[in-house]
Each structure stands twice: as structure tokens, then as C-alpha cells.
Amino acid sequence: MISVVLIASEDLPGLAAQMAMLVPAAVDGLVKEVVLVAGDEVGVDALAEDSGARLLREPGNVQDRLAAGVAVARGDWILTLRSDTVLREGWREPVERHLAGGAGAPAALIAPGGLWGRLKPRAHGVLLRRLDWPKGAALDEKGLSKTLKAKPLTY
Questions:
Q1: CA Rg, the chain, in Å?
Q2: Among 104, 109, 139, 148, which one is least packed by beta carbons within 10 Å?
Q3: What share of the chain is helix, strand, coil (3-state, %, to 5)?
Q4: What residues contact residue 132 under an 8 Å CB cut-off, 6+ apart?
């Protein structure tokens, strides 16, 4: 159902942790595929092979990498993620509710702040229908969320 477009970074432990958070959703069928988009980061090949993710090599900035990942994604829905902001437990429930009743609207997945809520909430990614990806636009998650007027999904 969902194709996750995951942008790799030099932080391999963070990338591995992000992918580990996706495993239960993949087993249950919520996540159809993970497209791991990397530039020249070392060690990403082995991680992609071990996890079953599809590796796409795309040099350039985050906007270029996101667009390349979305172009090869096969799911009806896309969830953009980066490896530097690891998902937390409980991320699936608001996503599943949104898919069931969100009428196809884009959404921004946001984790609450830490330290009893005193820290700023952290954006994890954007959830949108693949067909709603703005063609020809070079956007990161913040620009995408703003352009599409994404509904916040806090968990």
C-alpha cells in the first residue's frame, strides 16, 4: 500500500534504526516497499541488501533524491522519510487512520516534542498519494508539506 522513500545519510546506525521501525509495518502489509535513495554514502549497499530495500543511487540534494525515489515507487501512497529523524513507536496508528478516512489528503507525520513536550515537535515526513506528487517541483518535506497544505498527523 505505502512506498517509503527513505533518504540515506552518513548515519548508518540511524538509517538501520529507521528501517527497523518499518519492518513490522512491512510484515503486516502496510509498507509495500522501501526505496532507499543514496548518493555516495558508504555501507548503504549492504544495508539495502540485508533489509530487502530497493537501492537507488542519486547524487544531488534532498529534493532531487526525493523526486527520483518517488519516480520509481510503485505504491499508491508515498511516505517520505530521512534517516536522521527516526520514527518512534506509535507512528502507524495515525497513518492507518488517515489512509482509512483522510479522503486522499496529504499529511505531515509529526512526532511530539521530547522532555515532557517542551521541545519542538519533529517532522518525520510527508504522506501523500503518488499521483499527487507535484511534477517538476524541487521540494523537500517542508516545501512539499506547505505546497500541498498537508494535514499534521501527530503521534
A1: 14
A2: 104
A3: 40, 25, 35
A4: 104, 106, 148
Q: Alpha carbon 122 to chain centroid distance?
A: 13
Q: Which of 124, 22, 34 is nearest to 72 (CA)?
A: 34
pLDDT tens string, the chain, 155 residues long: the values are 999 999 998 889 999 999 999 999 999 999 999 999 999 999 999 999 999 999 999 999 999 999 999 999 999 999 999 988 889 899 999 999 999 997 889 999 998 765 545 556 777 899 999 999 998 778 888 899 999 999 999 88
Residue reference for cell 527497523: 20
Cα end-to-end span (Å), the chain: 20
Residue 54 burial (10 A CB sphere; 0-12, 13-18, 19+): middle
CB 90 within 8 A of CB 76: no
Q: Which domains does the chain have, with CATH numbers?
A: 2-154 (3.90.550.10)
Those residues with Cβ within 8 angstroms of residue 61's Cβ, 6 or more apart along the chain or in another chain:
138
Q: For the whole model, what pTM was predicted?
A: 0.91
